[in-house]
Amino acid sequence: MEKAASGECIQSVFKKEESGDRGTEKAFGRAVQEDRETEHRAGVSKKKAQANPEHVKRELVEKEHRELSVRRQCDLLSFNRSSLYYERIGLSEEGQRILDEMDKIYMDFPTYGSRRMSRELRRRGFKVGRLRARSLMRILGVEAIYPRKRLSFPEKEHQIYPYLLRDVTID
User: Fold this and answer.
1) What total number of domains does the chain contain?
2) Taking all residues of the chain, what is their mean pLDDT, rounded to a whole number?
3) DSSP assignment of 83-151
4) Euclidean distance between CA atoms 101 and 106, whole angstroms
5) Is the separation of the CB atoms in 125 and 160 below 8 Å?
6) Domain range enclosing 38
7) Do 133 and 115 fall into the same domain?
8) What's the pTM?
């Protein structure tokens, strides 16, 4: 369960071994430790299963499981059942054309943020506001290139001064 909860193997998390070993749950040939209580009343294995991203949790749920209902599996994974049945809708053709145009603009002007990007798209005939431009930029995985603060990196040639009050007691 712990290996499966970390997302490495996602085959059958909730399988029981048939050997009659007092119903100990097995996952991938190894015995799963029982869910131990912790300070915040959630077990260790349950916490690890809850830490997975949504797409991993969706794959962990077995709809045809004999002993655990879908409701119980979702409860153990802290995963909403509505998210299990939700199917995402892809981008429309118009949205895809906007993304393609955004990509061309970004290649020419990588310093453009969402405000300038939406302005440039409007100049090119697309009806796009700033928030729509921002969400499409996230989908593309691009962001404006600009000089960032680098205050925590010291200059290599800068002299390092000793701390003179280290062993001095102040009265």
Assistant:
1) 2
2) 79
3) HHH-------HHHHHHHHHHHHHHHH-TT--HHHHHHHHHHTT----HHHHHHHHHHHT-----PPP-T
4) 9
5) no
6) 2-85
7) yes
8) 0.50
